[in-house]
Design brief:
D-Maltodextrin-Binding Protein, domain 2, 12 helices, Immunogenic protein, TRAP_TAXI, signal, single chain, 10 strands, 2 domains
Length: 326
């Protein structure tokens, strides 16, 4: 092969390689990446985030949207991260959605956060589990005991602190105010390092199931005059019940307070990304409902209305109007 031919072939090969590299770089540049803040790995938020990402990553969208859903401390952390632009979406409690919009504690340092609702999921209920030998039968019995009050930055912690305020309690009201993660609670209860755990969660919950299966324990009601006063002034909570039959020994419904889990974003998020995320979930809603027992009774008409204390994001609203739901 003469010199000119070799040079020509080399030039063609080099040009082809450069074109391929540029094309690959162009595709990568066009890909959109989104992050969804979830919660602890044993919680419903984490399952929800992983499930949403699975559907979105499989969606036939060009340019592609790549979704990641890391474990986080929960609702409060997710809202702060949304405000800072660290996450694109986050699962949050409906009460926190309301507080963040108003710039109320625990979001007073951030000021009003321009949250937008995407859809809601399961009810989230304040759940208090106590050792059977603790002598605790109601909320008043927690005083002076060893109680897990929740991880700082979690929705569970914030909700229980509202209950503490309603009861006139501080951390000093307990002999121990622990700050364990959900995955650590059942073992601490079983090892007799705690008398009670508190957790805002959708039911059935793996963490609650573990506590009631492996430990002689029971769920106590969250009710009373102080709770009634809290419900009267905090309209983002409602009186709810943990259904009978979900856990060992729970033969009757147990009263408590709660709200909804909400997938939220901010007003800055690309409407097309929100639209494609919503479409990927609702086009596969029957499959989504099978991914966790807490999702089994979800209905589209409730998901786009109930618990949305922030305005709908325009990308979500576009999909719901196309479906004739709004």
């Amino acid at each position: 092969m003469n010199h000119q031919i070799r040079n020509g072939l080399f030039g063609i090969t080099l040009a082809g390689a450069l074109a391929s590299t540029l094309a690959s770089t162009s595709v990568l540049a066009q890909e959109r990446f989104v992050t969804i803040g979830t919660g602890g790995q044993t919680g419903v938020y984490y399952t929800a985030g992983q499930s949403v990402c699975r559907f979105l990553n499989r969606a036939e969208v060009k340019p592609a949207i790549k979704c990641n859903a890391p474990s986080t401390a929960g609702s409060v952390t997710n809202i702060v991260s949304l405000h800072k632009g660290e996450y694109d979406f986050g699962f949050i409690q409906s009460d926190h959605q309301h507080k963040a919009l108003q710039g109320q504690a625990p979001f007073d340092k951030e000021g009003a956060v321009e949250l937008r609702a995407v859809f809601s999921l399961q009810s989230e209920i304040l759940t208090v589990v106590v050792r059977s030998d603790s002598g605790i039968t109601d909320l008043a019995g927690l005083e002076g005991k060893r109680v897990n009050i929740g991880v700082p930055g979690s929705g569970s912690r914030d909700t229980f602190e509202e209950v503490m305020q309603a009861k006139g309690w501080t951390n000093a009201s307990f002999s121990l105010a622990a700050e364990l993660k959900p995955a650590e609670m059942a073992s601490a209860l079983g090892d007799n390092n705690l008398d009670a755990i508190t957790y805002v969660v959708g039911h059935p919950s793996g963490a609650i199931q573990e506590a009631l299966t492996n430990v002689k324990a029971r769920i106590i009601p969250v009710q009373g005059a102080e709770i009634d006063s809290l419900l009267a002034k905090a309209d983002y909570y409602s009186a709810v019940e943990i259904p009978a039959g979900l856990y060992p020994g729970v033969d009757g419904a147990i009263p408590s307070i709660g709200g909804k889990a909400v997938l939220a974003t901010t007003s800055k998020t690309d409407p097309e990304v929100v639209y494609q995320l919503v479409k990927s979930v609702f086009d596969n809603l029957d499959r989504f409902k099978r991914l966790h027992p807490a999702f089994a009774d979800l209905k589209a008409e409730d998901m786009i209305r109930v618990g949305l204390t922030a305005p709908l994001h325009e990308g979500a609203e576009r999909y719901y109007r196309e479906k004739g739901w709004l």
